[in-house]
User: Fold these one by one.
Assistant:
Number 1:
Amino acid sequence: MSADTTARRSDGFSLLLPVYAGDRPEFLGAAFTSSVQDQTLPPAEAVIVQDGPVPEALAAELRRIAESSPIPVQVVALPENRGLTEALNAGLAACGYEVVARMDADDVSVPERFARQWELLGEGYDLVGTGMIEFERDPDAPGARRVPPVGQERIRAHARTHNPFNHPTMMYRAAAIAAIGGYQPFGKMEDYWLGIRLIAGGARVENIPDPLVKYRVGAGAFGRRGGWTEARTEWRLQGELKRMGFVTTGQYLRNVVMKGAYRLMPAWLKKILFRGLVAGGLPSER
């Protein structure tokens, strides 16, 4: 990532929200409202990345948001769908503030989310994530909680086996992301790889355990976490962790076996195991 971060403003933060053709207009509208109008500390600007062509209904919603927003909105339109990694890098390059808050186009931020994260960023942290609570259709009818580890040492230890951050909840310093080369392609684990590189590079990281984001879970969520493609990505990631000295040989072998087995389980069994961990209050991976 080559964006110049020296000229960014420090008196607020940017909201970074990627959108692609599969997103629904009503979900996008709710996500934006919850992250701007409903916040006790709203962002100073919003950068929405349109990752390739979108249906007219979604394009109309983007126009409505840009025209009616109480804060400046910049829509970065990519000519074709390039995937989340490139979309986020393009969005980060367009953000005008030192601090950037992530948001997905179908989730809901609780009103105090950004105020609580901003306070910790003010204490010198480079990245602050939060807990999440799942919902299927109604954000006010929440389900399982996803509780991340808290404290630098617990986060580092947890990162050896699982993603220690809930990606849609992140608020981070753009300079810290630029220093490690931005987002890098890694299958569906670009966020895990980002967190690992931040931790290994000495960034100050923290999580707020409270669920400050309501995370929409679709019908095929657990099926998308599995299969040979995901297993191979998992094994490749574990190889990188071993190569950089983030895990020992024993930890690497354990992770390859256990996490590979999880990826290859049928979706119904993964759901049972995943829900059991989350319901037990343990940190979980996205």
Number 2:
Amino acid sequence: MSGSGLPPGIALNDPRPIAARSPYTFFMPHPDELEALKPGDGVKAIFTQTEGETKYDAERMWVLIERIEDRVAYGILDSDPDDMPLIEAGMPVAIPLTHVIATAFSKSNPRPNTPEPREYWERCFVDACVVEGRSHPDYLYREEPDMTREGDQYADSGWRIRGTQEAIDQDEANGEMPRYIALGAVLNVNDSWLHLIDAAPGSYFSWDAEDQSYVEVD
């Protein structure tokens, strides 16, 4: 292994910037989970190969812990890479706990009870200008869900999120179509309306620029 605790040509992606950019769709383990880890447990990290060409930019793989020292988990790779020829299952690796994206606890070390983060995978219909950050959510309403797609494990939330008319006009001029995506993907860009998320179907809200808040409208 190299001085990094990984085979030469292999590195880890730091997940913390990803979590900071996408707090509603990318979740890190609770600190209590990391503190409870012991030998025999597993941790998942994002590996990347820095030499040669590979099919994927990175792969998420499991590591079986043999020991933990100074907040670094030492163990062996417990996954078979899809296309990362410089590393293979069984190789020794070292994973800083700051880079752990998931945990798996053995039967002898039950997972601690920690708060489960609320996830926002239900779908919504939203203008492209909102998702791309070119407009704030200007008009929001929730109707009875009617767009759930066959084969999609997540249901339609009923939320319809519109940008400003100027931004919508620009979308139409550029051929940009509204999108049917996870609520969390919208919240990652603008969560100013999060407090409205549980409003009942039939609710309508408009952005009041003067008060810098959403007001309910008939």
